[in-house]
Amino acid sequence: MNLIGAFFFAIGIILIGLLPAPLLYVFSNLTHLIIYKVMGYRKEIVKKNLEGSFPDMSKEELSRIIHHFYKNLADIFLEGMWAFTMSGKQIFDRHRIINMEILEPFAQSGQSIIAVTGHYTNWEWGSLSANVVPGYNIVAFYKRINNKYIDKLVRWNRSKFGTTLASINETSLTFEKFKDNKTIFLMASDQGMPKEFYRKAFWIKFLNRDTPFLHGMEKYAKLYNLPVVYIEVQRVKRGYYTVELSVLTTKPNEIEKGVLTEMYARKLESIILRQPENWLWSHNRWKLSW
Predict the structure, then answer these.
(1) Most buried among 11, 160, 216, 257, by the most CB within 10 A?
(2) What value does the mean pLDDT of the chain take?
(3) What letter would DSSP give residue 2?
(4) pTM score above 0.70
């Protein structure tokens, strides 16, 4: 079954790759209707997550956000498929870092960096567009896909411009391996976690919810004394994004335990509140908090 699934996945990559960009987004509109109206993909989870985070939101506004969330989700899904056949120029033109000069002091001093983001708009192209940063190794952490053949395809795609892919299960080994090289470690810290990790999590009031956050970003920033930079991705128009960098801290070891993770959470929250439809509400983020 894994092989059959990978076969159809590869066929989908080929078909999406043949579409010109305008037609891709016509197909995305159709995909939006299918996953939202026909399949109702995780619709109850999306609705429950939004109602819990915005208890005073009107039904009309809630309905609007849900509609636009599925539109955003369809775009991200198809852009992720399109990435398999996109050239470097297409990626760098469409997922453009607008203030790379923020990294210059770190580059000049030979410092590695932890760069964190969230599952907001198109995070998928980040492991590809990051390779425009000169003088740095790029290491992106990812969660393995159960289908080993699709996993292999995804790892190939995300690393095709030079990024090193590392499993989140090998985070310690990866930091140790690259500790003496000038490296940007790409991490997303807003996903959920198994219940057994809750003891180690930092609990933060996030979007009106008591929310557990993974401790890895803060742990490794302190362990190796690495500056932490937030990556904010915003959609300019369909298929085009800006990537804006901001420094969360240059001295993680001078910050009390848990504060750096809260800084990350507050930054992400402020971005989500501006356009909540662009965050990944279909993830069962608070499944053990209800």
Answers:
(1) 216
(2) 92
(3) H
(4) yes
Measure Cα distances from 66 to 6, 28, 29, 233 in Å: 30, 16, 15, 20
- Pairing assessment for the beta strands 113-117 and 95-97 based on DSSP bridges: unpaired
Cβ atoms of 201 and 213 within 8 Å: the answer is yes
Find the helix or strand (DSSP H, E) in which 222 lies. helix 216-224
Residues in Cβ contact with 90 at an 8 Å cutoff, skipping those fewer than 6 apart: none
| DSSP H or E segment with residue 73 | helix 59-82
Cα separation, 211 vs 222, in Å, equals 22
Tens-digit pLDDT profile for residues 156-185: 999 999 999 999 989 999 999 998 899 999
What value, to the nearest 5°, has the Cα angle with vertex 167 and ends 163 and 170? 115
Q: Would you place residue 290 in the very low, low, confident or very high pLDDT band (cuts 50, 70, 90)?
A: very low
Beta carbons within 8 Å of 74's beta carbon, 6+ residues apart:
28, 29, 31, 32, 35
**Degrees, nearest 5: CA angle 265-263-212:** 40
The conformation of residue 199, written as its DSSP 8-state character, comes to G
Q: Which two tokens stand for residue 216?
A: 């890895």
Residue 149 near residue 115, CB atoms below 8 Å: no
72: tokens are: 């955003």
Q: For residue 116, what are the β-bridge partners?
A: 187, 230
Residue 95 binned pLDDT confidence (cut-offs 50, 70, 90) = very high
CA distances from 253 to 48, 137, 198, 220 (A): 38, 23, 23, 10
Q: Which of 138, 168, 145 is nearest to 80 (CA)?
A: 145
Q: What is the average per-residue pLDDT within 41-65?
A: 96
